[in-house]
Amino acid sequence: MRGFEAYNKFKKDLRDLRQLYDITYHLYQTETTKLDIELKSGTDISPTLKTSIGSIEHSPTALYRRLQHLYPFKLRQLILISSITTLEVYLTDVILEIFKRDITPFKVNEPVTFQKNYLLSVANIGKIQKDLITKDFRNLTSGGLKEIVKYYKKMFGIDIKNLSVNFQEIEEIHIRRHLFVHRNGITDMEYVNKYPHLGFQVGQKIKIDHKYLINSLNKLSEFAGLINKEILKKYPEINRAPKYYTGTKSFEQGDIKLMIQISILINSFDVVSYLINLDIKGHKLLDYIVQITTIDNSCILFLSGKQADLSKFYKPIKDHDSMLINKTIEIKK
């Protein structure tokens, strides 16, 4: 069973955040211990400590106090924000991988709006498909966790609110991150009323302690892992591999050699069966087919023969309600 690259990247990014917090917090503690010894010893310490970058200057006492409280808090705040971003990136990026494995869940019967000039200039159906998924990405990115929950339930039948993890805790981490990004960590009425057991008052500054951060990282890791398992159950393998029909004809010297790109407009239409059975007054297209390649709603038809013979079949294909010719290319060989 092949895994998802988006999930592998999520695990790596979350591990990097853990290590960043671990080493930085360790260095804060080490420097705090060192300053504590120096300040208590009564030895002369430089009145101002300058960093190698030179953007800040601290007295030893001020640096000691900041290393104890402010800097660890700011560090945990940044790690929390990044961890939720990492989760959201996974939950959106994996959608494209699902699309590459199986297009079926995305075939929902709902209207979509495109500009006329876009449709008239687009090269093929594949481009429209990719743009539709990209549009979903943008909507999910702006809608946040709430929209992602609805999307997974609707498109994949996966209820990420009811996995074997407390979704309220995941939601609280997400909302807390939102407060830090948009309100600098100041609570509002919605947060206070939603999580009264946390004991915050409206307008209070939220503090993230070491235990909360570690627990949050563990919960996010577990949550993503459970979602990954559910996705793998439904889409374990790639079902969108190209299918090939090999004809009896080969590219021969002196023949016209064509590659015709066709979009299939109706899902139930069997394009291969239609093409190999196409007969125009006793002339069979099958006699000129080198190969037919299909994937999803796209077909590439390779033909070889005399111009007069091949031209007989162009109009029946062009005028068929279930097909659209995107491009015809003469292969020079």
Description:
With 333 residues, the protein is an alpha+beta fold. The protein folds into two domains: 5-234, no CATH class; 243-330, 2-Layer Sandwich (Alpha-Beta Plaits). The chain has helices spanning 5-41, 60-68, 70-101, 116-121, 125-156, 167-183, 189-194, 210-234, 271-276, 307-310, 314-318, and strands at residues 49-50, 57-58, 243-246, 256-264, 279-280, 283-284, 289-295, 298-305, 323-330. Strands 3-7-8-4-9 form a five-stranded antiparallel beta sheet. It has a two-stranded antiparallel ribbon with strand order 1-2. Strand 7 and strand 8 (298-305) form a beta hairpin. Helix 1 runs antiparallel to helix 3, helix 3 (70-101) packs across helix 5 (125-156) and helix 3 packs across helix 6. The radius of gyration is 30 Å and the shape is elongated.
Quick take:
This protein is an alpha+beta fold and 333 residues long. Helices cover 54% and strands 13% of the residues. The chain folds into 2 domains: 5-234, no CATH class; 243-330, Alpha-Beta Plaits, CATH 3.30.70.
